[in-house]
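help with these tokens:
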Amino acid sequence: MKPTLLHAALLGCLLSASSAWAAPADVTTTLDAYAKRQAEVGKALWQHPELGYLETESSALLQRELREAGFRIQTGIAGMPTAFVATFGNRGNGPVIGLLAEMDALPGMAQAAEPVRTEIPGQDAGQACGHNLFGAASVGAARAIAQWLKDTGSEGEVRLYGTPAEEGGSGKVYMTKAGLFNDVDVVLHWHPSADNSAAQGTTLANTSGKFRFHGRAAHAAIAPERGRSALDGVEAFNYMANQMREHVPDGTRIHYVISNGGAAPNVVPDFAEAYYYVRHTDPAVVRDVFERLHKAAEGAAMGTGTTVEFEQTGGVFSLLPNDTLGQVMQAALQQVGGVRYNATEQAFAERMQQALEKPPALDTALQLQPYRADAAGSASTDVGDVSWNVPTVGLSTATWVPGTPAHSWQAVAASGMSIGDKGALNAAKVMALAAVQLLQSPETVRKARQEFDERRGKDFRYQPLLQRDAPPLDYRRKASE
């Protein structure tokens, strides 16, 4: 649905109709008072990065912050020990506003909070997607919204969803399948970035999983004829997958790593594993391409005298944008503004940009990107499944030095220092302002739902790409040991 001038004008009237629009300034005051503690929470998650489904300490810390603010907490939900829902308020006739909080790190990304590549001895994981900031800022926003509900006596409810394993584990999909969003009116989320934007748009649907080949071990020199190499199976499979790239729909992305290739060259590997992702905007294309990968894996096993089994680890929908909510978020972002560096941060950023390819000007961190309702993203997120079940809106703030790509050492470094903290505080303020505005404007919530229903279509039935009942709680465990 394309936004129209009439639509924008009507929404503008909604945003300005209530004289209480000035009242949310109290929310930003609450967050300024909490800013030091929010930064400490983000730093704690950064200093002890935990991989998907292993976020025990991270989840416990976020829960403590919410429990201290009077939230009621359910933990260990949807089969995930680190997942939780924290609730504050009484719905009455008001809406239920959900906030998402991610916390998982990425393997192989340890990096100190320095502007040059500096690995941390003895550490593997790192917050290369800034989920330490994501979790801390969402908790800060939830606390501020709860305080506003308490101070004003307003009807409504805020829920913070602690969502594990976003990086390939699809934690939110299990929460969606469990019906945890069924009675939520609007969901808000954000993500660390190198700029500030409330643009709404799509992402890529994604399916991921591990192809495990089994062969027969033997001495590679004395008795090679007795062996059947599982690694040969993986390599034959990868070759066929690479040949397939020419014959898939435009926009399809196929990624893989050999996650286990054997232990020693003089032993014919009896086990090997390839970890695959397939992405496309259309979930149907993802299903089709992954089915073709299954056939290629079977052919590779047949040709190498091995066997193969498959375990799906993740599967997510593309994001369903919502312009009505996007404009509310944009108004809040304009009220908060961008990130201003002090002299120390300026020097840090200038040094870091020396390692970045064609970085933009540093004042990009202070600027706001133009609003769009039809942006196209090339990443994937399990927020997608949430967005097809409840009206959802997101934003990004400049937690990283301009020009920084996600999943990089530069992202880890900035996520562990004051540049990241400033961007995260802005994100918390924007979400809190947007949430309070929605709590005061039932008509905007209704319009967001109307747009949501129109975009989905009357015949839509949610059938998740993730076809497994229980979360793969150990999908990251080998990488963490």
